[in-house]
Amino acid sequence: MDDSELAALRVEIDKIDAHIVELLAQRFNITNQVGVLKAQKKLSAIDPEREARQAQRYTELANEFGVKPQVVQNLFRSIIDEVVINHRAIAVQTAFQ
Predict the structure, then answer these.
(1) Are the beta carbons of 86 and 33 closer than 8 angstroms?
(2) pLDDT tens across 32-62, in order?
(3) Percentages helix, strand, coil for the chain, rounded to the nearest 5?
(4) Which among 35, 54, 51 has a CA at the least distance from the CA of 43?
(5) Considering only Cβ atoms within 10 Å of each terminal Cβ, which end of the chain, N or C, has fewer?
(6) Distance (Å, whole) CA 56 – CA 35
């Protein structure tokens, strides 16, 4: 593999990374809307049953696409933790409105 081939592959990786960040922003936008609805309905920021279903789904998706399930689980655990933090903040803001 020469330098130009390596550079081309890295350009492709950078494009994919940008797409992942764009999708993540879209996901957080939608989960923010979920947080608002949960706050309005006085629902918990955490939904253990959904999280369990999603964890199973993430494992299935990882297997389908040939990615280590633990890598996918770790990624989504981090995302979900951030969503919960955001939902709790929304609930506090909504309580004072």
Answers:
(1) no
(2) 999 999 999 999 999 999 999 999 999 999 9
(3) 85, 0, 15
(4) 35
(5) C
(6) 23
- What is the spatial distance between Cα 80 and Cα 82, in angstroms, rounded to a whole number? 5
Other C-beta atoms within 10 Å of 80: how many? Answer: 17
What the chain holds in terms of domains, given with CATH numbers, is: 3-95 (1.20.59.10)
DSSP for 19-54? HHHHHHHHHHHHHHHHHHHHHHTT--S--HHHHHHH
| Cβ within 8 Å of residue 83, ≥6 positions away | 28, 31, 35
Q: Cβ(83)–Cβ(89) under 8 Å?
A: no
The token pair that represents 76 in the structure block? 């989504």
| Mean pLDDT of all residues in 56-75 | 98
With beta carbons less than 8 A apart as the criterion, state whether 39 and 90 touch. Answer: yes
